[in-house]
Design a protein that fits this description.
Layout (H helix, E strand, L loop, with lengths): L29 E4 L7 E4 L7 E3 L4 E3 L2 H11 L8 E4 L3 H12 L5 E5 L2 H14 L3 E5 L11 E4 L19 E4 L8 H8 L4 E2 L1 H17 L6 H18 L1
Helix pairs in contact: 1-2, 1-5, 2-3, 5-6
Length: 238
């Protein structure tokens, strides 16, 4: 697997379910493209890296979005009343697109800086998702949503462990090393279900294998076991 360079100017044309042409990408994240009756395809926008590049076919795919959707559905999350997204980078944009796929209600996005806030609101408008942005300093109050997706790098959300509500909803923390993060540990201690970055990673990996081989389904359980073992070995060496 080869990653496309971040910010690469990639021009993609595709089809929505109604077979309407998708214009050249100009917003963060990735857009779903599909023909009627086909499996949804996810293509990268220029400001977000493609996760899979099939050189022979000249095709790039963002597997963050289907990975997020598949991981949530595996845990029984098929529709989201409302959600909070922590962060405003490429993974946050993919998370917003995944929430659109799940038919999410309003989404609160906790960001640092007005430019990122404006970008996420614009992306939400394009996806048809109502987005309310709040300053990162107010993120603790937004943890009461039924679903919280933390898309920040390791360490960035650690202090929010102090703000975990008494009866939390579900948390999807995309970090997988180190694990658990302080936020995930506090969330579990309060009785809330937690998904980790490994859940995202294995669902991304299965999609990548299927894209590159043209075969499926990929062995999800086996891939998760191998990933868990690798992380345990890495942790033991630290």
């Amino acid at each position: 697997m080869t990653r496309a360079p971040v910010g690469a100017r990639t021009r993609w044309c595709g089809h929505r379910r109604s077979a309407e042409a998708v214009p050249e990408a100009s917003s963060p994240g990735a857009v779903r493209t599909a023909r009627a009756g086909s499996t949804p395809r996810y293509r990268p926008f220029p400001t977000a890296p493609a996760r899979t590049v099939e050189v022979a076919r000249g095709r790039r795919d963002n597997t963050d979005i289907p990975g997020l959707v598949a991981a949530l559905r595996e845990r029984g999350v098929h529709r989201v009343e409302s959600a909070t997204v922590l962060g405003a980078g490429a993974t946050a944009a993919s998370a917003l697109a995944a929430l659109a796929e799940l038919g999410s209600g309003p989404v609160t996005v906790c960001v640092r800086g007005p430019e990122r806030a404006a970008r996420m609101r614009a992306w939400g408008e394009r996806l048809g998702v109502g987005v309310r942005t709040v300053a990162w300093e107010r993120a603790g109050a937004a943890l009461t949503a039924p679903l919280v997706l933390s898309t920040t790098p390791k360490g960035a959300a650690d202090l929010l462990a102090r703000a975990v509500p008494g009866r939390p909803g579900a948390l999807f923390d995309v970090v997988y090393d180190p694990w658990p993060t302080p936020l995930a540990a506090a969330w579990s201690a309060a009785g809330g279900p937690v998904l980790s970055g490994l859940d995202l990673l294995v669902h991304q990996a299965t999609r990548q294998v299927e894209l590159m081989t043209g075969r499926g389904p990929a062995p999800l359980a086996r891939m998760r076991a191998v990933g868990s073992a690798a992380l345990a070995t890495a942790a033991a060496m630290c």
